[in-house]
Structures are given as structure tokens and as C-alpha cells.
Amino acid sequence: MSASSARATLRDSVAVALAGVALGLIANAVSPRGLALRRDYFSAVAPVAAVTPAPTASSGLSAARRARLGAQGIALLSHERAVGFFRDPLFTAGRIVFIDARDEAHYAAGHIPGARPFDHYRLDKYVADILGACAAADRIVVYCNGGECEDSELAAGDLLQFGVPAAKLFVYAGGIAEWREKNLPLETGPRGGGHRVAP
Amino acid sequence: MKPDPSALRRWLPLLARLALGAMFVHLGVVKALDPVGFLKLVRQFDLVTAPLLLNFTAAVLPWVEIFCGGLLLLGVRTGGTALLALVLLMGFTGAVALRAWALSRTGSLPFCALRFDCGCGTGEVAVCAKLLQNAGLIVLAGSLFIPPPPAKPAA
Predict the structure, then answer these.
(1) Domain boundaries, chain A
(2) Helix B78-107 and helix A3-30: axis angle, to 10°?
(3) Which of B20, B45, B52, B60 to mutate to test the interface with A (most CBs of A within 10 A)?
(4) Can you name the CATH fold of A63-197?
(5) Which chain A residue is nearest to residue B79, measuring alpha carbons?
(6) Which of A16, A21, A103 sits opposite B77 (nearest CB)?
(7) Is A75 helix (H, G, I), strand (E, B) or coil?
(8) Within an 8 Å CB–CB cutoff, is residue A42 touching chain B?
(9) pTM of this structure
(10) What is the mean pLDDT of residues B107-124?
(11) pLDDT score at B71
């Protein structure tokens, strides 16, 4: 390859990269799935280490995350207490609120009956409904997939930033995985109007 | 009938270009359809920490791959596009190897026993298989720089 041909290849390569970046920026701007480039999506959690910490056996939550939630004053909820809250008449009365912090597709595929969707990455879509429900509630249970899923922690962080008192907030660490594992009822589709799946 | 080596040398670059292009388009589309999922996986590498850069990477990189793959499929600016593909592949491969090495050291696991979702668009994969696949793609991209044989003079 001659020097001039190598230079042309390099020039083409840079041009292709720049055109690809421009295409990406346009696609991100027009797509409903696009990311808000300036937003810090992970401000509520510390930077990850190069290696994901091992979960503790008891809750499926790593010690680091447990400490982080504790520092924010957010309590962890055991499976038994989550079920207790679910069966409490205050849940039906709206004084206890369950919040599903997973994305729309996962929510629709199966959530705790009556739980409200609240995707941390699509705040605008849900925040009005969620803040209204949280204002009327005494206890707010946030969950995601369980295990190392951070979405419940991120959603709880959002609620704190919106002024929801930490004393009301609980993170159900076992999440939907534990809920399913224990054969508890699920609701598919939208909240309330969805199909309820018996255990 | 013996295969004509020069014909093979003419067809191989075309096949390499199409295979590489199709792979780039496929893997780019998988990531572009779920930018949030890709964002979470990019973050796991801990190579980019500034929010703007992290979001930019997750939002734009899949489209660069799709564009690159599309140009390779169409045969437009093949040299420059192949060079970009080569650079991207070497970057991806290095990042996957580094993360796997870190996971292997911390978990005291054999390197090739590791499986994780590298954000490559292939879901959870065995690390060594992924690195081999990437090595194959790097060879394909590199092969696009081999000049075709001179055409036979007409009889």
C-alpha cells in the first residue's frame, strides 16, 4: 500500500467514523428510546468497581449496596415483610405503594399486582403518577429484578431527590425473582387492567 | 476439477466483507434497540465514568457499528471502513479481555471458565469463545487490506 493510498484509507476511516457518530446522535435524538446525554443516570449509586461484588447470601444484595442504602436512610425489606405489606389492607387503601423499577417490557410481562411502573431511565413518563401516589402513602416499597439489579436503588434515589422522605422508603431486595420463586400472584399488562396470574 | 486459486482469492474478500458487514449490522441493531441495557453493560466495564461520555458511548457506538456494517455490505469506502472496523474490534476485544482478567483474578476462576454479558450484542457468552470470535472478525477485517490478484489477461 502506497503512502498516498494509506493516507486516503485513513481519511476515509475518519470520515466514516464521523458520519457514524452523526447518525448516532440523530438517531438518539429522534428515538423514543434515546438517552439523555447530559443526565447522570447513576448518581444515586457509587461507581462500580472493575469487578461486581459478590452478593451476600441472606438478601442477594452486596455489602456495598446494603451500606449505600443504609447511608441514605432507606430500609431493606425482607421477603416476609414485603408479603406482609402486600396483604395489608393499607395497600388496597393506597397507604402502602409498591413501585416496580424495571422497564416497561419487564413490567408488562409480570409485576406484583397493583405495583406502579417507575422506570428510572424514563422518569418523565412516570413521575407525576408516582409522586401523587407517594404523597398519599405511608410506606413505599421499591423493587426490581432482585440480586444485583440496581434499578430499585436508582428509583429510590430519584424519589429521595423528588422530596419523598427516606423514612417512607423500602427496597425489596429479593425483587420480582424472589416473588416468582415463592409462587406469589403476578399481574401482567397495565396496572389494574392487566391479567392477574394466580400462583 | 481443480479449484482455481486465483478465483478463490477474488471471492474471499467479497465473502469476508459481507460476513463482517452483516455481523456489524446485526450486533449494532441489537444494541441500538436497547440503549439503556447497553448503557448498563458499558458501565460495568468501568472504563468510562464521566456521565456525558458514558451516555454518548452507549447512544452512538451501536449506530457507528450499523453504519460501518452497512458500508461494508454495500462495498462503499471499503478500505477506510475496514480500518475503522479493525480499530473498533481491537478496542472491544481488549476491553473484554481486561474485564475477564479482572473477574478471573477476583473470583479465582480459570479465565476460560468465565461467562458474562460483555455488551457485545450476543448476550451472556463464554469469554474464550467471545475472544476467539473477535479474533476471527479481526482476521476478516484485516483480510480486506490484501490486494486482489491481478486479473488474467484475456486470451
Answers:
(1) 1-34, 63-197
(2) 70
(3) B60
(4) Oxidized Rhodanese; domain 1 (3.40.250)
(5) A9
(6) A16
(7) strand
(8) yes
(9) 0.84
(10) 86
(11) 97
